[in-house]
Amino acid sequence: MKIICIGRNYSEHAKELGNAIPDKPVIFMKPDTAVLKGNDFYIPEFSNDVHYELEVVVKISKGGKYIQKESANKHYEEIGLGIDFTARDLQSDLKSKGLPWELAKGFDGSAVVGNFFKKENYNLESLNFSLLKNKEKVQNGNSKDMIFSIDDIIAFVSQYFTLRVGDLIFTGTPEGVGKVSENDVLEAYLEDEKVLDIRIM
């Protein structure tokens, strides 16, 4: 199972981190060992600045290569929410040296994945999702603000990687990312339903 992640897919998030708005999807990956087991996230010892990034996640249900955008919707049946935990201090250091981000993005437990839901129950063109930290809303996103749609992403990614059943695609985070601290509680909502509840340890 591959975890394919899209960076800078919401213009306001790109701006808040001082990044240019991309003209093609920005891709990075996490290993399957990044998936968090349980509901407790432990801040790694190598970072003092871990950030939450709430994202819509797509689960691939039909594999393929060179998938056309017009048929991309046939390759997934379920969507959910996930959190891409990022060691921002480590990422900034790596970026300043022109090095890959994997150490800051792919560490154990850095990919929170919730339950998945049938896509036909939602309007994927205008899907609301939000994150609360200690009961305060910190991220509020809508899929209509994506620079690249889910189908755009699948078509683009499949030019380079064969997609297989069970692969996950994190589709990018809206503005409002921020630091987590010990004892924080994160709650994620898909429309009005709570789908994630994470404790920071």
Automatic annotation (TrEMBL):
InterPro entries: Fumarylacetoacetase-like_C, Fumarylacetoacetase_C_sf. Residues 2-191 form the Fumarylacetoacetase-like C-terminal domain. One of its GO terms (molecular function) is hydrolase activity. It holds the Pfam family FAA_hydrolase. Keywords: Hydrolase, Metal-binding. This is Fumarylacetoacetate hydrolase family protein. It comes from Chryseobacterium formosus.
